[in-house]
Amino acid sequence: MVRGALRPGSKFLGRMELFSQGEFQLIRREGRELDTATEVSVISHNQMLRTEFRAFAGAGLFTEWLLTVINYGNEPSGPVYRLVEQVFGLLEAGAPAWPVICGSVVRLLQLSGHGFSTDVCVACGTGVEGAVCWSHSSGGVVCGKCGEAGFPVKSGIISFLSRAGNSSLESLARVRLWPGGYIQCHSLLKEYVQVHLERRLLLKSEKVMKEILDAGH
Ligand SMILES: [Zn+2]
After folding, report:
1. Would you state the pLDDT for residue 83?
2. Does residue 37 share a domain with residue 67?
3. How far is the CA of 192 from the centre of ligand 1 (A)?
4. I need a surface site. Which of 8, 71, 121, 122 has the fewest CB within 10 A?
5. Does an H or E element contain 197, and which?
6. How many domains does the chain have?
7. Cα–ligand 1 centroid distance for 151 (angstroms)
8. Domain containing residue 18
């Protein structure tokens, strides 16, 4: 948020847009809630994120997740910054939005201390393979023996989530799931976060993303 940036004559006009990346010079004063921005130079315009509707919806949904999961203040966070940069860069380059979003949400959860287990049963600690169940409250997969503690989840979703924790977003963007697979994956992540943050998530862009999918784009 930069107050007054869009006023006529503002030196920020055209140098600061939704989802663009810039370098700001700020003056910080003791006791003031807002810093004063004095200079800005554009690093990436990310124009596609404002002009291409799929990329726009994807960037919007990722941003809603970011603001929900990460507690932000005046402390810089290199890993979160680099993740935002990567996600916007991939969407700007035309990468499919769903794998990028689902993958980046897994990263956001890891960075905020809400990570989950995808390869070891959260109830008994043994390695899991094949058909598994999932438990939001216990924090991930449960094996066949401890199955009552969770509900069944398709193994394709578990392997995607596992891969999301260990490989680059770029390679995740190339992963294809069955029709509707990413919607299921996204719902699982949303329910998981609702349990862990103990509140309902209102992700407005999720509806837009689903409508785009239903319209066959
Ligand atoms: Zn177990």
Report:
1. 97
2. no
3. 19
4. 8
5. helix 181-197
6. 2
7. 13
8. 1-45
